[in-house]
Amino acid sequence: MTASTELMAPRAGYLRRKRKERLVWLLRGLVMSLLAIVFLVPFLWMISSSLKQNLDIFELPLRWIPDPVEWRNYIQVWTGERSMLRYFGNSTIVVVATIVGELAVVSLAGYAFGRLRFKGQNALFLVFLATSMVPAQLLLVPRFMFFQQIGLYDTLWALILPGLSSVFATFLLRQHFASAPRELGEAARIDGAGEWRIFARIYLPLARPALAALAILIFDSTWNDFEGPLIMISSEEKYTVPLGLTRFMSDDGTVSMGPAMAGSVSSIIPVLIIFIVFQRHFMSSMARVGLR
Predict the structure, then answer these.
(1) 116 plus 256 within the same structural domain
(2) Could you say which of 104, 119, 216, 217 has the lowest number of CB atoms within 10 Å?
């Protein structure tokens, strides 16, 4: 009897631990589900409002299902006088150019700081990191004056060029390249490979997870940027999506809420597509970068 009791004790402890883990998992799932609902409510309200008439949007009690459904809001947004197609085209140009340019610049800078050895390297890198302490808003006026003097004000280049450098992205890639196996580069040098070939053929392919994660972050920040276009762009034909949404405001300050909500829903579709399609790849990329 004593022996059987001793054999049953570990099993009873194991079952208690499993029940406790299951309870904790259920509580976590409940909390996360409630938080997800809280964060989804504004988006659901925006979608519902985009299909309503202006007078019905703020009616109380709130009616989630539009009646009648006002599809004309989306027709006005995409085929009206101020079509979102032009704004989407400008944003696409800025986003693609910024992603390609920034990844090229920061990968070279990260490799230089992480793999090469030169005099004053650490001091220069600390100075470079210190620039991140300067608020971006303080640079808006000098940047505006600079682009105005060189003739790039009110062009898409005024939005692309400032995004080609990033302290965070350079630091992330520097850490990645610094932790990469040094033996790979040394073996390539013995075989006669130059520094550029070592970078392009060996270390850059190893940085694909970090580059993928950075590309998604750059897309999100550039697509949703409002402050930069507001300062640098004055012609409506060069407006990006966030700035184009302000065109649904009339001269007296009133907002056509139905079209404005339809435009807002349309503007987040590319972000949602990128997130849904690349969610697994993004999470695995960030996990690998963190492990390094």
Answers:
(1) yes
(2) 119
